[in-house]
Design a protein that fits this description.
Number of helices of chain A: 10
Helix content of chain A: 55-70%
Largest interface: A-B, 45 and 45 residues
Structural class of chain A: mainly alpha
Number of strands of chain A: 0
Mean pLDDT of chain A: 95
CATH class of the largest domain in chain A: Mainly Alpha
Number of domains of chain A: 2
CATH superfamily of the largest domain in chain A: Tetracycline Repressor, domain 2
Low-confidence stretches of chain A: none
Distance between the termini of chain A: 56 Å
CATH architecture of the largest domain in chain A: Orthogonal Bundle
Oligomer: homodimer
Shape of chain A: elongated
Order of helices and strands of chain A: HHHHHHHHHH
Chain lengths: ~210, ~210
DNA sequence: TTTATAATGTAAACAATGTTAACATAACTT
DNA sequence: AAGTTATGTTAACATTGTTTACATTATAAA
């Protein structure tokens, strides 16, 4: 991109990049078209040549954001070179770290306002999409090898997900300063959760070894 | 309030009432001063005679909202005529029902944007404020009578709270249509959570009776 | 009762917001 | 070289929260 060119050359991608940089520090509500136009030296309406609306740009961010999120969680769950229990622990840790490192993006991904986009992504056939089916698969694997009790795997995945989601959102929304102690809280949560899910046999043989 | 009076008579309280009615159906972001002024037959700037700003009105809503929230959860936890396990179950159920019945209010109470108000309320001395210390007290009670393991009660309370918070927010933010099955999910969550918290003695004697 | 003062309303104007319409220039196709 | 498409600008809109100057009513003091 040269300076005196009338056409920017790569405005769409640069605006997305700027938007992602922006929500590293500020909430999505504070992202205005002026922020984007100032940072790209264009006018406030230039964005409309590349996105149907401001919301359309945000929807693109959500699609990209879920790819990034899935890339930090799913690979760990799928890595069969790691013992299953450790995979659960590490992926949950990665989940919470992602939320803490990208609080505004995380809330964008799991908030209500753009729920329709999330659900569209989830319903893409043959696609893990947001990491949920990776979790469900790992739970099924645990049930098959006799580690976990044979309950409804979808419900169990929701249970695990909601515990991680709850701790993550309490932390990033500033609930009672728990962020400073989040590692211990996560360990507690993980142990409690896993302990309730393992079979009696495993439990008696000591779960945490 | 008569019709042709220049002064409204009760504008502050009526605006609050209208605002609460509004967020029963719509998110707080959609509440505008025009909504309030139209509903009260006043001008858009009339509100400034009763609140310093729009945010000040919302802060008042949060204070009221936490009273309501606390009133639906804490009394159950404190009612010693009910067995402790049942108190835990019922109060968690009330927690989630509150979130489902008042999703926009719930998100207002626990969101980041007004975290400073929530933390102010929490830090009021000798005040349960938002129900958290009721939970912590109930956990301590459980530890005293030998039902629950003697871990750090604050951390355990956070653990319980985050599980309820996670399930509640996933439900109200439309995650994977889980709302239709929320009662079973709550039972699962409760059993799993309690099972990890009770003492070995209780566990062997059957937890859920 | 009159009169001063405080309380509570309105109207008009602001800047900032997302968006659209009319227009201008660059880039690409043929 | 000419026509078409892509990509930018400027100007205008309605809507937003907020402030200022003014108007009316209510209250208290004289």
């Amino acid at each position: 991109m040269k300076k005196n060119e009338y056409h920017h050359g790569n405005l769409k991608e640069e605006m997305l990049k700027i938007a992602f940089d922006f929500i590293k520090e500020q909430s999505i509500e504070k992202l205005t078209l002026k922020v984007l136009s100032d940072a790209t030296n264009t006018s406030r309406s230039a964005i409309y040549r590349h996105f149907k609306s401001k919301d359309a740009l945000i929807e693109t961010m959500i699609i990209e954001g879920f790819k990034e999120f899935d890339n930090t969680v799913s690979p760990i769950l799928k890595d069969k070179s790691i013992p299953l229990k450790k995979r659960f622990f590490k992926s949950g840790e990665a989940y919470i770290n992602f939320a803490i490192d990208n609080p505004n993006l995380y809330k964008l991904l799991f908030g209500k306002r753009y729920a329709h986009i999330r659900e569209e992504i989830i319903n893409l056939k043959n696609s893990n999409s947001i990491g949920f089916s990776s979790l469900q698969d790992a739970i099924k694997e645990g049930q098959k090898v006799g580690l976990l009790k044979k309950d409804n795997s979808f419900n169990k995945a929701i249970l695990v997900w909601s515990s991680l989601h709850g701790l993550s959102t309490l932390i990033i929304d500033g609930f009672m300063d728990i962020e400073k102690n989040y590692k211990n809280l996560y360990k507690d949560l993980f142990n409690n959760l896993l302990f309730g899910m393992v079979t009696n046999k495993i439990r008696l043989a000591s779960v945490f070894k």
